[in-house]
């Protein structure tokens, strides 16, 4: 692994109260496989910069392409990626992808979970239930009325709500190339959340106008996650890929030490 991961190992071990020397003495090796799971309205291409950074640092990276038609279908796709991965994996979810990794992450090959401005539901919860009662004054995502059971964001409001810190041309393309998000996927309930039994990390995007940062913090705390905050929109994984990749690398180094 690269010197970047070595430095991350030391910093993360100290942050967890674990000396770098003791970690080395224990013979622990970083998890080398990472699976990236996208959320609603987008596809896996948004992970490209995070993917490139992780590949450069020696990780084997898989990008899941969810249909976002139902939670069951998306979990099945993610489980196939887990089965195909080499060794243990770090499972990463953005937004609705957090619901997917919460359900799929109980697989024994999953060493740790990373939530990127993502939903982290408890048993019986879904995206629909988690967004049912937003805090007063929270921004209202510009979700249009369902069409044939699928949702879209208002293109004219996509930049401000979803990707305000992304290059304008790229954000415009993301708005125009939206993936229909099935209402059934929003209503999919988690049965046994993986974060209850797996080491968990959470990145809060403090400028998020799709999911209130306060809600992100509450879910991260409930999950017992090691939490990092960074300025960023809901598309923080696109706009600030280095921060996202660093947290994933930290998880890969430390998943086996908890």
UniProtKB/TrEMBL annotation:
Pfam families: Abhydrolase_6
Signal peptide limits: 1-25
Gene Ontology MF term list: hydrolase activity
All copies of domain AB hydrolase-1, residue ranges: 34-246
Ranges in a coiled coil: none
Keywords: Hydrolase, Signal
SUPFAM superfamilies: alpha/beta-Hydrolases
Name of the protein: Alpha/beta hydrolase
């Amino acid at each position: 692994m690269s010197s970047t991961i070595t430095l991350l190992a030391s910093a993360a071990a100290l942050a967890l109260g674990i000396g770098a020397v003791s970690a080395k003495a224990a013979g622990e090796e970083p998890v080398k496989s990472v699976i990236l799971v996208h959320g609603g309205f987008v596809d896996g291409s948004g992970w490209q910069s995070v993917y490139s950074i992780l590949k450069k640092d020696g990780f084997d990276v898989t990008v899941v392409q969810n249909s976002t038609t139902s939670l069951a279908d998306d979990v099945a796709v993610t489980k196939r990626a887990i089965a195909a991965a080499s060794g243990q994996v770090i499972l990463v979810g953005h937004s609705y992808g957090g619901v997917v990794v919460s359900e799929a992450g109980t697989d024994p090959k999953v060493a740790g979970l990373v939530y990127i401005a993502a939903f982290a539901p408890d048993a019986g919860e879904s995206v629909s239930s988690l967004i049912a009662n937003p805090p007063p004054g929270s921004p209202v995502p510009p979700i249009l009325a369902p069409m044939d059971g699928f949702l879209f964001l208002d293109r004219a409001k996509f930049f401000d709500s979803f990707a305000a810190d992304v290059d304008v041309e790229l954000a415009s393309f993301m708005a125009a190339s939206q993936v229909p998000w099935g209402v059934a996927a929003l209503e999919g309930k988690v049965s046994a959340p993986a974060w209850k039994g797996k080491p968990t990390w959470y990145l809060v995007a403090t400028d998020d106008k799709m999911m209130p940062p306060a809600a992100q913090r509450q879910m991260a705390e409930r999950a017992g996650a090691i939490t990092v905050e960074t300025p960023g929109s809901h598309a923080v994984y696109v706009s600030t890929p280095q921060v996202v990749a660093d947290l994933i690398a930290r998880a890969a180094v430390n998943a086996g030490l908890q």
